[in-house]
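For reproducibility, we list the full input for the zinc ion complex.
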Amino acid sequence: MPFDHLIHQALLLTMEPRSRPLAHGFVAIQGTEIVAVGQAEDRENLPPARQYWDMNGDLVMPGLINNHCHAAMTLFRGLADDLPLDEWLQQHIFPAEARWVDYEFVYTGTLLAAAELIRGGVTAVADAYFWETAARQAFAESGLRGVAAQGVIDFPAPGVPNPTDNIRVAQEFIDSGSASSPPLITSTLFCHSPYTCSAPTLKQAKDLTRQRGLSFFIHLAETRWEEAQIRRQTGLSPVAYLDSLGILDEMTVAAHAVWVDPADQEILARRGVKICHCPECNLKLASGVAPIPDLLARGLVIGLGTDGAASNNNLNIFGEMNLAAKLHKAIRLDPTVMSAREVVELATSKGAQVLDLGEITGTLTPGKCADLIVVNLHQPHLTPLYDPYSHLVYAAAASDVQHVMVHGRWLMLDRRLLTLDWPTIKRKALALAERINSTAARFPA
Ligand SMILES: CSC[C@H]1O[C@@H](n2cnc3c(O)ncnc32)[C@H](O)[C@@H]1O
Ligand SMILES: [Zn+2]
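The corresponding predicted structure, in tokenized form, follows.
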């Protein structure tokens, strides 16, 4: 029986442990699944395919994974810049969210984000926001894989005016997801932070995700302000505080982990907490630099994330790879840390493990889902090529992604989006932005 797609004549990165780049590589796909991977000479025993895709030497690799995003915040991009996190959040973003964020805002903003993510080679994303049912719907339409997490915070929030309802709303979101959501999207919750969620809220939220076997997400140890605040309130660091509540385990994903001293690092490693490194957002908000080489040396599983477009200000994982590779070299005065290969692993195979999707995606392996991207190497800035990992991290751009496939389905071919109606998304996004712009009290004090 013929299989569906044969992607061939590729420079292939499978991203399996210890794998090497394969020249004249191929990937055979049946339905949603990869059925064979190899080099030209291994093709002889393969049945014919329904469709052949000659990549003419372009790079084929697993899709990139964005481990931390607030997709709908694309509609707040550039609204408030050049501020520290506490001021950015409390005086600008929370008031703007209170005023503007509803189902339609989140739906449109997430479609806008999905377009940017796909065009940047992302095939799986972990999102967290309010009105997350709208985000889940938008992701489902886009064809992206991902985790949609309903935000939990002990303040009035969009769609959850009374904070005492926050866990109930998250539970309903999770349960409606397992009943009806498309198989590519997992539904869970995201506790905003140790400084905006009370101890009972954190414990209830963790209990809920434990009962359902889901990942628990949180912004953790992001700023020096947070560190000082939690120490003042509890006498413990943010990491030690969450550990004292029983929150930390291998199904906990901590975004940022900037202010983690060796004792915190030891706790994170012992509990098997997964980390999402967001270097660009941490630089822009001047939050600091997470000690990623130390955390990697302790064996933690780490992925990369952009955070939202209002604090980054893009959803570009190529940019995160580039920064993650260079930042730690400069801080440590050591160019050997964070090799290009290691950084591409964070953006692919390790990123999938962070989202508990390691069995499903993150490497080009027979039996896993066909989530892959094709990078156009036939360009001046990528010619000649000695080391594909080097080009991906130090030379390539998001716009070099030519084709994107998720779950055996092309989402983009020759940079044309196939699942999303870009003119409609653009029109709706501009209409919402016009309303935001026309308000005199854009930044209520
Ligand atoms: C419950 S998650 C959504 C919530 O988080 C806010 N947010 C976005 N980026 C950050 C960040 O880097 N640190 C803390 N909070 C952030 C977002 O505006 C939503 O209110
Ligand atoms: Zn965030």
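Residues 70, 85, 89, 93, 97, 128-129, 151, 153, 190, 192-193, 219, 222, 281, 307-308, 311 surround LTUXU72L (ligand 1) (CB under 6 Å). The first strand starts at residue 3 and ends at 12. Both points were considered when choosing residues for closer inspection.
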